[in-house]
């Protein structure tokens, strides 16, 4: 489905607010959707480059489903299964080279955020065989990638609908989104794959989705459209909140809710971007090897506290918390402790103060002291 809405209206105070909504990814979210919609998947090209990590796409059956869908529709494929967690630019280039040599003309990302983000970057670079990896971060927005299909097997990133591809930049000892915007053509979201994910992955990725909601709502780019997605998504998220800190048992219906929440979070940040918790998380993930969702989640209480507004209280109420302290305790129960040594705190604060993109998204002004307070409230 293609929805393109554009609106500009006058607010009460008279300033002009711009509203923009663009969501060109066709999404199927249902059991067995790879099988059911295999012909649409196969129709995107003559030969697919399948992009996965080493294990989970095999163990949860998603890779087999994709292979069968392509085979039954007479579409060729090759497999690149070497995507590491937080993929590097170097890995993107190796997969790109394989795709070009083998004559692939579309890319299927299967897994969590790492393979799905990688698929977008690879699809872009396949269209630019003469460019080296610096092109990924070159200024200007290039959307001329091969078609991309995303098949999520975790429940946080929302990468199946976002145009973002976050890669590790070893030279800068952090992660960052590539400059270019690559929207997937098709997302096939089957909640059945989540049944194979370890509890820690469900917890971490579901908290990543919560981070997307909170950072999208508390964001200078937020509009009525993006906040509509957040409100709807957080209502869904609150239904499985108590599963994450083991207050109740997980039931079958939770998998679909978890996946839907993640996708709605992705749609929300597509329009706003993320803000300080994501910006801080990249340093923790790089240096301390902490999973993305966990690294984001630990900074959420500090971000809400720093906003200290009616808006953050509304957000807490939407997910059933009365007080920020109650929320902080919940995050601690779900994620456990994270260590952030002093030199890493200093590095993250310095890095974020130079990150104009993430600072711009934050709706309140921050300086070194404010960032320090966010970290300290969240971790100490
Ligand atoms: Fe995230």
TrEMBL record:
Q: Does the keyword Oxidoreductase apply?
A: yes
What is the superkingdom listed in this entry's lineage?
Bacteria
Pfam families reported for this sequence: ADH_Fe_C, Fe-ADH
Question: What are the boundaries of the signal sequence?
Answer: none
Domain Alcohol dehydrogenase iron-type/glycerol dehydrogenase GldA, by residue range, is 24-191
Q: Which Gene3D superfamilies match?
A: 3.40.50.1970, Dehydroquinate synthase-like - alpha domain (1.20.1090.10)
Sorted alphabetically, the keyword list is: Oxidoreductase
The GO terms describing molecular function are: alcohol dehydrogenase (NAD+) activity; metal ion binding
**The name this protein goes by in its record:** Uncharacterized protein
* Residue stretches making up the Fe-containing alcohol dehydrogenase-like C-terminal domain: 204-313
Species whose genome carries this gene: Blautia hydrogenotrophica (strain DSM 10507 / JCM 14656 / S5a33)
> Does the keyword Oxidoreductase belong to this entry?
yes
């Amino acid at each position: 489905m293609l929805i393109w809405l554009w609106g500009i209206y006058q607010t009460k105070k008279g300033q002009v607010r711009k509203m923009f909504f663009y969501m060109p990814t066709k999404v199927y979210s249902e059991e067995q959707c790879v099988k059911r919609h295999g012909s649409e998947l196969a129709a995107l090209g003559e030969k697919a480059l399948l992009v996965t990590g080493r294990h989970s796409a095999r163990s949860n059956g998603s890779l087999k489903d994709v292979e069968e869908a392509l085979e039954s529709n007479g579409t060729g494929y090759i497999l690149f299964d070497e995507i590491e967690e937080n993929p590097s630019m170097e890995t993107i280039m190796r997969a790109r080279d394989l795709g070009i040599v083998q004559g692939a003309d579309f890319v299927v990302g299967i897994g969590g955020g790492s393979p799905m983000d990688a698929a977008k970057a690879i699809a872009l670079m396949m269209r630019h065989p003469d460019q080296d990896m610096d092109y990924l971060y070159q200024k200007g927005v290039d959307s001329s990638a091969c078609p991309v299909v995303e098949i999520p097997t975790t429940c946080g990133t929302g990468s199946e609908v976002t145009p973002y591809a976050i890669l590790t930049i070893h030279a800068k000892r952090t992660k960052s989104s590539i400059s270019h915007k690559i929207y997937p053509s098709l997302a096939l979201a089957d909640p059945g794959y989540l049944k194979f994910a370890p509890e820690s992955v469900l917890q971490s990725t579901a908290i990543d989705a919560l981070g997307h909601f909170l950072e999208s709502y508390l964001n200078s780019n937020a509009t009525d459209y993006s906040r509509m997605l957040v409100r709807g998504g957080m209502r869904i998220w609150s239904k499985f909140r108590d599963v994450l800190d083991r207050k109740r048992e997980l039931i079958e219906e939770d998998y679909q809710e978890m996946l839907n929440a993640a996708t709605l979070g992705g749609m929300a940040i597509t329009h706003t971007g993320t803000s300080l918790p994501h910006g801080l998380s990249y340093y923790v993930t790089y240096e301390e090897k902490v999973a993305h969702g966990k690294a984001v989640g630990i900074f959420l209480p500090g971000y809400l506290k720093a906003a200290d507004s009616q808006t953050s209280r509304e957000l807490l109420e939407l997910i059933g918390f009365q007080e920020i302290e109650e929320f902080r305790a919940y995050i601690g129960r779900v994620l456990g402790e994270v260590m952030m040594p002093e030199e890493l705190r200093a590095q993250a604060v310095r890095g974020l103060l130079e990150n104009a993109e993430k600072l711009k998204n934050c709706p309140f002004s921050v300086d070194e002291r404010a960032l320090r307070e966010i970290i300290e409230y969240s971790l100490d």
